[in-house]
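Hello forum,

I keep getting stuck at the same step: I have a sequence, I want structure tokens, and every attempt I make locally crashes halfway through. Rather than fight my setup again tonight, could one of you with a working pipeline run this one for me? It's a single chain of 594 residues.
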Amino acid sequence: MEKLENHLNDYRLKKKLQMLYIFCVLFPLVVTDGVILYDLIRLERQRQQYEMENVASAVQYNLSNTVEHSAATAKNIYLNRYIENFLNVQFGSVLEYVMGRQRFMKDTLFESSLGMDNTKLTMYADNETIVNGGEFSRISAARGTGWYERLQESGEDMLFLFYYDDGRNPAVDGKRKLLFLRKMNFFHNSPCEKVLKIEMDYSNMVRDLERMHYEQPVYICRDGEILLSNEGHNSVLQKFEGFTDVDRVGFEKEITLYGEKLQIYVLKTPGSILPFLRENIVLIGTLLLVNIILPWFLMRQIDSSITARIGELSHVFESVGKDRMTELSRVRGKDEIGSLMLNYNRMAVRMNDLIQTVYKDKLKEQEMDIARQSAELLALRSQINPHFLFNALESIRMHSVLKGEYETADMVEKLAIMERQNVDWGVDDVEIGKEMEFVEAYLGLQKYRFGDRLSYELSVAPDCVTVRIPKLTLVTFVENACVHGIESKTAPGWIFVRIYKENGILCIEVEDTGDGMEEDALADILDKMRNASIDRLRAKGRVGILNACLRLKMMPACKADFYIESEKGTGTMIQIRISPEILSEPGGGENGHA
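Reply #2:
Ran it on my machine without issues. Output:
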């Protein structure tokens, strides 16, 4: 065996494949008569397919016959002038209606003319003098129900519907229903809307399907829901179940009955081919003996020659993702696989040299880029602290000059809240709840400065309180609204801060009723916000808004969009929409971000 294996190692792969084809494919096919067996199985499957088609056609016929019977009854009522006139009568009292109904039933022999067993018929009319009950009802009792809405949405005059009624009107358990609906609009001069509902016996339909005694499982479905089946799933009080045996479907037929699109599935029975195989067991056994024993012996030898060495190559190729590629310790054979093993060793030597000179050098360059970006981020942070400290101290100074020192203690307390948030740069992000405490302290401090000229309202949705954003970004926009909105306007003004989620997107809105902006200034500041960069920040000018926008855009996997609405003399609103990639709850990542 070892000598045969070594001999095969020297053969070219093409020759090995030829041997595999001759001894494992061609020879068994010549010896055996596989074509005959294949044809026999194919004919048996065709017979089964034809039988399933007949079953589907029979189910369609029975269902269509039941529906057409209801449709015919609906047509008779639809064309009946006496019913139309009765439903249009405006009765003066309940007693008058009851007496009129009795006369109508007696004169028209309405009940005896229906001839529908186990079928409930109800006519709805937009006539408030009708008393709900029996065959007649006000249409207000139908409006709002699922079947009525389906009829109106369909745009059709007639609709057949499998329907699960869970409306509990009256207050009973939900149940499956089989409905035929028709708008009673034949008489065009009718003063009110009318709808006919025929409720067929769902249980009787189930019994008819089961009495057919089909060998194959049959399912009548609609959009993946099981409506009827001869394998159960027919409980009247349960909602329609989902159809999960898609892989077992042997024949499918789609039908449409008065707007209801249905699928009839006939399932293949497990082991349906086994009886046929038992009848031909001798022929099959002969084929198996000829096609397995000889190919098995040859395949073992070829497997040792090919797959063993390919396995060695596969094992060493796993080292490609490491810092160094592993070389093969032993190269065997003179065929294509042996040549591949030899060339792999040559490639490994070359790649190891390239990894040292290129890959590791690239890693060092990336580390330097990360360090540079971190330094730039720290530089951005350092610009914020003096900015807010100056504004806070300026507010205290103006308050002291104008009103004395009586409330200084409260102002200093708010300043302390701000400074604790401003000085702690252990991490760059903070929960929105904490940031809003900072905003409230800042606005409270500005309230001392502006007095009745400033009012504010803060609103945070509960599901946004623990979301983390870059520190001091929110208060930057609030400070901008206060300084450039309220301060520049002599009349009293408001600042609104609203934070909520919309379709999974975090929305931050900062609105003021200040002086507003001209159209040119609005376009300029929006351009700066959307295109904030390190280079723009280094240029002279105000850095607060640019700083906050840039830090939002620099968050990992962040997609922040900025919008501004402003009208001169009315106010300004800034909206920030942050994509879900940036959002995370506590414990959502190493730094609290997704």
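The longest helix spans residues 336-403. If your local run keeps crashing, start a new thread with the error log.
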